[in-house]
Amino acid sequence: MRSVLGSRPWLTLALIALVLAAMPFVIDDNYLLHILILFLIFAVFATGWNLTLGILGQKTLGHHAFFAIGAYTTALLSGTVGLSPWLTLWLGVLAAALAGGLIGIPILRIRSMPHVAIVTLAFAEIVKLLLANWKDVTRGELGLWGIPPFPAIEIGGTTIRFGAGQIAGSFALALLAFVAVHALVLWLLRGRFGLTMVAIRDSQLAAESLSIDLTRSKLAAFALSAAIVGLSGGLYAHYLQILTPTSTAGPEMLVTLLAMIILGGVGTFFGPIFGALVLTALTEYLREYGDLRMLIYGATVTLFVILLPRGVAGLLTRRGRPAAAGDEPATAPET
Amino acid sequence: MTEPLLALDAIDVRYGPTQVLWGVTLRVEPGEVVAVMGPNGSGKSTVLKAAMGLKGVSGGRVMFRGEDMTRRPATARPGAGMSIVLERRRLFPFMSVRENIELGAYARRLSRADLARSFDEVLALFPEIAGHLDATAARLSGGQQQMVAIARGLMGDPQLLLMDEPLLGLSPALQRHVIDLMGRINQRGVAILFNEQNAKLSFGLSHRGYLLESGRVVLEGSGVEMLDHPEVRRVYLGEEAA
Amino acid sequence: MTIRRTLMSAAATALALGAGAASAEEIVLGATAPLTGPAANSGEAHRQGMELAVKEWNEGRGDYVNEGGEHPTFRLVIEDQNSKPEVAVSAVQRMVTRDGIKLLLGDTLHSHVTMALMELSPQFNLPILSIEPVSTLIADKVVSDPEKYAMYWKGNYNSEGYGNAVDQFVEWATGKGLLDPGEKKLAFVIEDTDYGHANADTIIDLLGADGWTHATTETLPAGSTDFYPVLTKLRAEDPDLTVSVFTAVNSGVALVRQMQEQAIPGRHLAIYYPTKTEFVEQVGDAAEGLVWASLQYAPELSEAHKAFDDKIVAEYGNPSTYSQAQAYCITMLGMRAIEQAGADDPKAISDAIGASDYECLTGRLVFNPENHTVIDGEGYIPIPVAQIQDGHNQIIWPESSASAEMVQ
User: Fold this and answer.
1) Subunits touching C (CB < 8 Å, at least 3 pairs)?
2) For chain A, the helix, strand and coil percentages under 3-state DSSP, each to the nearest 5
3) With contact defined as beta carbons under 8 Å apart, do A321 and A314 qualify?
4) Is the separation of the CB atoms in A229 and A68 below 8 Å?
5) Which of C15, C253, C24, C30 is CA-nearest to residue C131?
6) CB contact, 8 Å: A291 with chain C?
7) Superfamily of C22-158+302-374 according to CATH
8) pLDDT-based confidence at B205, cuts 50/70/90?
9) Is the model more confident about B10 or about B1?
10) Count of pairs with CB atoms under 8 A, one residue in A, one in B
11) Where are the alpha helices (DSSP H) in A203-250?
12) Which segment of A10-19, A167-176, B107-116, C26-35 scores lowest on mean pLDDT?
């Protein structure tokens, strides 16, 4: 699994977490922290998506739908129904996981990757259209407002507040989610689950012959992946406190997140994190360039893909990667 | 008469509208080495996939240790004592050699300690890969990869090892090595069902053999009988009729 | 190796983003406007109006509360919202955290964007003053939770303002025999925004009380230009009065042309889009006789408006519309509030806005303390109805300020 995880994944993850945790103490600039919060949320999103896209090798292109489902579920249940966001966040996660399992069922029957891509893409479009047209509830493209922030919590006499204006609390919460999700995923990937996923990706036939249950494993991966993406959607909803169908389940989200995963290194554990960092920062930085933005954005992504075809994370795992076909290493004697 | 380990009872197999196996009947007794020989496209690989459950049968029955496995999925086979070494090895290229081999025991759900013990036992047969356990599988040579594939098959602790074209594409020296390994595996009491295009290799190695043509069993007998059969000699060994 | 690289990339990102700190002397005003997207021409007009106000203020030519005193210097930061609420929300987060804005002028155009931005006022402890949005939903929101939205102020009247004007105008015109009510069948073609819906809902209520029946409301996305399917349906309804509401001038031009081509029966009353000067130019003869609301800004008819128009032409090289004037007035109102309250106490700024009584180009700006909305009507902000006659806008109602008679 080194090709997925790199050589010392726990150490690397701990160091990333440590560096991030130090950020609020090092940089005294709420704007930078705001961008880092967005990065943390999108890193969770990208990692969740990468589970099916990269690790399981299913070309699923509809995960922004789970982001929207997680976001809208918690937003509506807390904002409209009035439940506590601390509860509804998990209901959003659950809704996303169920949707993930549901879309997983037809996907199982399809072995052709282009078809998997089209079915999942269509699913996301359907979710977007439902959200856009169910105006009585979602307000459609006019935007769902009135999403409450997470209620403040009291720890040792200090009140921690969350939501758009509360940078410190929001950062802490996003970091907690980031670390928890990545620790969970790393733990799973280091175990039987990870081997199962990669085995299915590399050879479904071999995996099946070893008694790996393709159906159950894929459904589990879909549900977990969707749940994580749903969680990131919930965090996004209660942080930005405004949702529209296009901003959550629209094509721009698809392209940005795909670019994060590909640029970072598809199928690697740390790749999506790097991708999210680079592209969240780039997106913000390029705002000043107006209409040139998408041009520069596209050029940057293209450049990265050409220079680092295995993504940023490819730099970390270079040694673990197989050589090209026919490239026999000198150290391996022919027996 | 003891019950056969594996019994295919008049199985039919189709790929879509095309039928590729027609009433194939075949058995493997415990501890036996059995060869399925036939020309390209005769369906010999399909026989093994059907036995393993990787290809569903449209007619007939698949019995393993007296149990009807016909409708049970491939995932039920390893737990019952059947492993397969797939054609062209089908390793997991991005995993290490150790991970590839350990996955062979997937169905057994071993404890860490039992897994290590089993791993050491299997590895004893393959000294040539012991030094590459942490290498990524795709970096090994073809011969080494074949060893890993066989080791992975053995990790399931099978009573019957199916080997799909185990000698295909190997140098003569490597072929001898694999043949030698098959003998040693068999000595441990593991029955082997394998397929091979070369009649001499097939029937020279096996206790019994089957000749498959166009999806039908046309001949069966002990290895010696098969080698001596005039039809085999004429068509597959290229000898003039005596 | 791995770790160092991680650290370095994080540090590089931090550096790359660290640019752009504000000078201590200037008070920063933030604004969100549709600088790109379907309403970009409105956004551009707002930018001109706001920038002109700030420029005049800083150059000693502002409408100061205290003429002789010290006046603070302002800097204006405008962010594009692309007509999307979520883009506006992140833009405001950026302006608050990066630029330290003291007052948000937002949204300059959209009601639905304003609905989202209002939520940020308590979160950021930020006074917000919207410029053109009229939707009554905004005012209702303020009334529903006065504490939460205490620092939000609505610089334009409620959609009832239009509704009342349309209602009273229709009553007047039918009474005079200038408008044939027929069977009193009422239809709408509106953009699918809070603005469109709020106007339609109000007019349905008011005209409904006068015996009009609501035949149909066709909604299209803001910025639409293909109305043929909708018009086919509309013609089948055979309405006596069709009210259309669009903010994008392209939509208005396309709609008016296509209505003429399709020969839609009954009267057509347009809301908002004819305020754009380019509307009459682009639509040509098809708009002849079109009745619309509301001609609040008419350089052709008003000296004060003409003077403002000259300034816009001199500064930007294009004629002005209501949007420049409204943006100018509200920006000026905001700066006057900060002049009185100082920049350090958001609550004081908000209170000063609420206490404003400021006579500007578009009328006398006084806020209703209950719903934080400027008051419309007699003595405050007039909402006249206009008609396009010989390619020119004329005020036809109320009669007291009419520049021409309504023609049938």
Assistant:
1) A
2) 75, 0, 25
3) yes
4) no
5) C30
6) yes
7) Response regulator (3.40.50.2300)
8) confident
9) B10
10) 99
11) 204-209, 214-240, 245-249
12) B107-116
Q: What residues does each domain of chain C span?
A: 22-158+302-374, 160-299+383-401
Q: How far apart are CA C217 and CA C289, in angstroms?
A: 23
**Chain B residue with the nearest C-alpha to that of A329:** B139
pLDDT digits (tens, 9 = 90+) for C80-103: 988 888 889 889 988 998 899 999
Edge to edge, what strands does the sheet with C385-389 contain? C213-220, C185-191, C241-246, C267-272, C291-293, C385-389, C392-397
Stretch 9-28 of chain C: residues touching chain A, C-beta under 8 Å? 9-10, 13-14, 16-18
Point out the residue among B99, B132, B174 whose CB comes nearest to the CB of A332.
B132
Which residues of B fall within a CB distance of 8 Å from A335? 128, 141, 143-144, 147, 174, 177
Write down the ipTM of this complex.
0.87
Average pLDDT over residues C56-83: 92
- How far is Cα C367 from Cα C157, in angstroms, rounded to an integer? 9
CB-based contacts of B203, cutoff 8 Å, min separation 6 = B35, B37, B209, B223, B224, B226, B227, B232
* Number of CB atoms found within 10 A of residue C57's CB: 22
| Euclidean distance between the first and the last CA atom of chain B, given in angstroms as a whole number | 37
- Contact list, C2 vs chain A (CB under 8 Å): 6-8, 12, 316
Between chains, do B144 and A335 touch, taking CB under 8 Å as contact?
yes
Structure tokens at B60: 């007939």
Longest dimension (CA), chain A: 71
Residue A332 scores a pLDDT above 50: no
* Nearest 10 degrees: Cα torsion B107, B108, B113, B114: -140
- Cα–Cα distance, C190 to C195 (Å, whole number): 9
| CATH classification for the domain delimited by C160-299+383-401, as one of 3.40.50.2300, 3.90.226.10, 3.10.310.10, 3.90.230.10 | 3.40.50.2300
Return the domain boundaries, chain B: 82-157
CB C338 within 8 A of CB C109: no
Q: How many C-beta atoms lie closer than 10 Å to residue B116's C-beta?
A: 12
Return the CA Rg of chain B: 18
Contact A3, A269 (CB under 8 A): no
The pLDDT value recorded for residue C22 is 40
Residue whose structure tokens are 């009649």: B199
Indicate the DSSP class of residue C284: G
- Least confident range of A172-186, A293-307, B215-229: A293-307
Question: Which pLDDT value is given to residue C109?
Answer: 94
Q: Is B146 helix (H, G, I), strand (E, B) or coil?
A: helix
- CA C274 to CA C265: how far, in whole Å? 20
> Cα–Cα distance between A58 and C186 in angstroms, integer?
54
First to last CA, chain C: 82
The structure tokens listed for C7 are 């650290």
Distance CA A164, CA A146 (A): 12
CB neighbours of residue C203 within 10 Å: 28
8 Å CB contact of C17 and A32: yes
| Buried b or exposed e, range C133-150, using 16+ CB within 10 angstroms | bbbbbbbebbeeeeebbb
pLDDT above 70 coverage of chain C, percent: 94
Where do the structural domains in chain A lie, given as residue ranges?
Answer: 10-245
Q: Does B170 touch chain A (CB under 8 A)?
A: no
Torsion-angle region of C211 (φ positive above 0: left; ψ -120 to 50: alpha; else: beta): left
In this complex, the residue of A32, A163, A243 whose CB is nearest that of residue C123 is: A163
DSSP state of A266: T
Q: Which residues contact C338 (CB under 8 A, 6 or more apart)?
A: C27, C72, C74, C102, C103, C349, C352
